[in-house]
Write a structure and sequence with these properties.
It is built from one helix and twelve strands; from the N terminus they run αββββββββββββ. By secondary structure, it is an alpha+beta fold. It has two domains: 1-66; 70-206, Ribbon (Umud Fragment, subunit A). The strands form two sheets. Strands 1, 2, 3, 4, 9, 10, 11 and 12 form an eight-stranded antiparallel sheet that branches. The radius of gyration is 37 Å and the shape is rod-shaped. Residues 55-66 have low confidence and may be disordered.
Length: 208
Amino acid sequence: MPTKPDGEVEYRMRQEEKKALLDVTSQEWKAELTRERYRNSFVRSLRGTIFALITVAAAAVLVAVLLLPVLRIYGTSMSPTLEEGNYVLSVKGSDFKTGDVVAFYYNNKVLVKRVIAVAGEWVNMDEDGTVYVNDVKLDEPYVTDLAIGQCDIELPYQVPDSRIFVMGDHRSVSVDSRSSTIGCIADEQIVGRIVFRLWPFGGFGAIH
């Protein structure tokens, strides 16, 4: 049988090696291209996710600051309704009625009290601390210690225009509209109406 010259065999071997090398190089290139595409896709997806999270967080902060401020209770002036360390949710607004619990600014602090009367109404109290609005006794199941407290205003007292008269539920210790130091609360002082207790979980629920 005739044999091929050594040179031709060697040439064909080199060609086959080149072809095999090209096949390997092509496969590696395709694999690298796939990895690069995946990496770019992952980076784009990660950027999108981060942007979405930042947007949601910013929106949550804006809502919390502008519409639904979360406040921490300090002191015992609203006990037993609210205790020190409670976290509560408030809602922006200015249309209040007797019995609402509101937060307001006073001397760079935020105080929380209960609305007793609104503009134009008359507030009066007995010596034992029983409260009357327009000569009608208030039903106050949230108060456990009736007391006239720190009261230096002349009774009966008419609430001025664009003001609300507030008192703490813990009447013997609360400093509120009964004291001329604080007085009635103006609309621009209001942070919002307290509607929900967030913490502790055992007290989670609406505020009445």
